[in-house]
Specification:
- The chain has ten helices and seven strands.
- It has 394 residues and is of the alpha/beta class.
- The chain folds into three domains: 22-120; 132-184; 225-391, no CATH class.
- Strands 4-3-5-6-7 form a five-stranded mixed β-sheet. A two-stranded antiparallel sheet has the order 1-2.
- Helix 3 (54-77) packs antiparallel against helix 4 (84-103) and helix 4 (84-103) packs antiparallel against helix 5 (123-141).
- The longest helix is centred in the N-terminal third of the chain and has 28 residues, at 2-29.
- The radius of gyration is 40 Å and the shape is flat.
- 18% of the residues are buried.
């Protein structure tokens, strides 16, 4: 049994090795040299001895991928399309990374032969191509630096790309990025108009109201909008968002009750027909002659409806401060509500209709206090305001 297991293990290793080798060969045959290289390098990184058959294939894929990339660089250098500068830079990076991956694995041997992978110093090429690409990006950004807000935002995006690939490109690059970020922003001043404060005097509600204008804008997708709940006099605001809390309606806890009588007839057995001698009469087929024996049963279902709610009505108004015109008003409503229906019964449960079963399964619930309802209503209202602002097309 142990011998069989060893044979199976050896076969599994051989099949696995062959499968990986075939995958690399197929990629080379189809001209996908990068895929062939990545497959071979992945296997050899796992185990150079186990996947030694990949070494000559790695060599072939490496040479052909390099030749292909260098030919593409030569072609792109003749192009007048400035977008080619990015492609050239990326190709030099790819060449450099590819040979680094091989160097980390050397020496690479198969069948007693050590394979030689030619390497080249690409540092100068990378620096030069990065400089040319950075120059192109900066020349694209420069005309946009003092244009419209949309142009300033485009300039910011381009300068940020330069910072990623070439952080030392200019000594004032970081400052230009910060400056375009600030000048490209639209600032929104958030105000609260509170007409319900006198109805919310508990400390919890007042605590929520205290920071009501400080919106949670971390999930907003528009990075060019910033909300301030306190005015910064060094900033020119583009918009004003006024949150109005207009009306608070409370329905105090209440329990409505209703009694429902239930009655039905159920079969409890059979009534048989007898002859004069006391024998059960038979029909023509020999079956007992009988009729259902029915019994009337009843029950009384007591239904209880628990109700309590707090509703806050208001609106969100947006004003363009440049034109001093309202650009939109959206009604906002939030509600904390408890509505629970439960039931009890007396009598025979078989008499009760199916539609009352859910209520009979339910239990009486504890009414939350007014503070909990107020807090939930305020927080839900604020979340709805944030959702409206997040979806706003500024």
């Amino acid at each position: 049994m142990k011998k069989t297991n060893k044979i199976l293990l050896v076969l599994t290793i051989i099949l696995s090795s062959c499968s990986g080798t075939q995958k690399t060969k197929s990629a080379i045959s189809s001209g996908n040299y990068n895929a062939a290289f990545e497959n071979a390098i992945s296997k050899l990184n796992k185990d150079k001895s186990k996947y030694a058959k990949q070494v000559p294939l790695l060599k072939e894929a490496y040479d052909k991928a390099n030749a292909k990339d260098l030919a593409e660089i030569s072609r792109l250098k003749k192009s007048t399309d400035k977008q080619s500068l990015k492609k050239i830079y990326n190709l030099y990076l790819k060449l450099d990374v590819r040979q680094d991956e091989v160097i980390l694995l050397e020496p690479l041997k198969y069948d007693g032969k050590t394979y030689d992978f030619k390497v080249k110093e690409y540092t100068k090429d990378i620096v030069n191509s990065r400089k040319k690409y950075s120059d192109y990006l900066y020349s694209t950004a420069s005309p946009l630096l003092y244009g419209s807000k949309q142009n300033i935002r485009k300039a910011h995006e381009i300068l940020s790309k330069i910072q990623v690939i070439n952080p030392d490109y200019r000594s004032d690059l970081n400052q230009q990025i910060l400056d375009t970020k600030k000048r490209g922003m639209d600032y929104v001043l958030v105000k609260l108009k509170n007409s319900v404060v006198n109805q919310l005097k508990d400390s919890t509600s007042l605590g929520v109201l205290k920071n009501f204008s400080a919106l949670s804008t971390g999930d907003f997708t528009n990075k060019w909008i910033q909300f301030h709940d306190k005015r910064d006099y060094t900033i020119q605001y583009s918009y004003e968002a006024e949150i109005s809390l207009d009306k608070l309606v409370r329905i105090p806890e209440k329990v409505n009750t209703q009694k429902v009588n239930q009655a039905k007839e159920i079969q409890t057995g059979w009534n048989y027909t007898y002859d004069a001698k006391g024998n059960v009469l038979k029909d023509k087929d020999g079956n007992d002659i009988k009729t259902p024996k029915m019994e009337k049963i009843s029950a009384v279902v007591s239904l209880f409806q628990q109700i309590k709610s707090t509703t806050l009505n208001g609106k969100l108004s947006l004003k363009n401060l440049k034109t001093n015109k309202i650009i939109g008003t959206t009604p906002v409503k939030s509600e904390a509500k408890l509505e629970n229906i439960y039931a009890t019964y007396k009598g025979n449960p078989k008499a009760i209709e199916q539609k009352y079963y859910d209520a009979l399964k339910n239990k009486k619930k504890q009414f939350p206090d007014d503070t909990a309802f107020s807090k939930f209503t305020l927080q839900t209202f604020k979340e709805k305001v944030e959702q409206i602002l997040a979806a706003q097309k500024w």
